[in-house]
Amino acid sequence: MQFAKKKSAFIIPTNAMSDVAFLLLIFIMLVALINYRKEVKIEYPEALPENMKKMSAEKNVELWIDGSGAFYLDGILCDIQVIEDAVTDLYLNAPETRVHIIADRNVPFEKVNAVLAILQLLQYRVVSLVVKD
Question: Which domains, and CATH codes, for the chain?
Fold first, then answer.
């Protein structure tokens, strides 16, 4: 008994393509939702619209002061001495880096003044006070 060989045309199976595209779409959506910036929940003070200027978020250092007066450096809880050391290193290594001071509306001004005193002592001139628009 002799069997005849059948020659079939090469066919790319496309029935799983939609599954792969759907999984790829889910993966991209999940990666896009990851937020790498650490934020402290505060209530922003308000400013007059004519005094506001928007800054880019690149190459910035954020000093947060929450409602209880705790200090955060780029979202990490620290004390005033750590902030002073970090700003000193920043001033020596990259003096053009902008320092953003983000304080809660209800924080006593003495806490903000402590950070401003450090920046003034170092003669750091690239400073922004962040407010709600």
Answer: 49-129 (3.30.420.270)
